Amino acid sequence: MEETLKIITGQGFWSPLLWLAAALGILLLAFFLWSRGRREYKRGTEQELPFLSGERAEDPRVGASHLYWGFVEALKPFLNGLRDWHSGVITDYVGWFVVILVVVLLLVL
After folding, report:
1. Residue 8 DSSP symbol
2. Structure confidence by residue, pLDDT tens digits, 63-78
3. pTM of the predicted protein model
4. What is the torsional sign of CA 9, 13, 16, 22?
5. What is the CA radius of gyration of the chain?
6. Is residue 33 assigned to a domain?
7. Measuring CA to CA, which residue among 98, 69, 71, 72 is closest to residue 83?
8. Nearest to 19 by CA among 31, 5, 9
9. 20 to 30 A Cα–Cα from 68, which one of 6, 12, 54, 94?
């Protein structure tokens, strides 16, 4: 009977009962941590208002300009240099791609 509950592979065995026991253990641990949580939350109060990085948010949507503000500020000189090269013309980009591809191929060969 025990042989039917194991699937033997080249990497070991897979026992559904062990996985079920592990999943049950994780669920019990999660329930224990959840039950130890704070009970101070009240619906319909100020606690439901959007809150973002220590400030009350008028607009709860978070854009990339907010999330990556530190990176953008740190890389501003580099990004401004890239903006100077940006022309918006697709043929310029294709030309740069071909030039870089040729250089890479010459380096590889």
Report:
1. E
2. 667 778 888 889 889 8
3. 0.35
4. negative
5. 28
6. no
7. 72
8. 5
9. 94
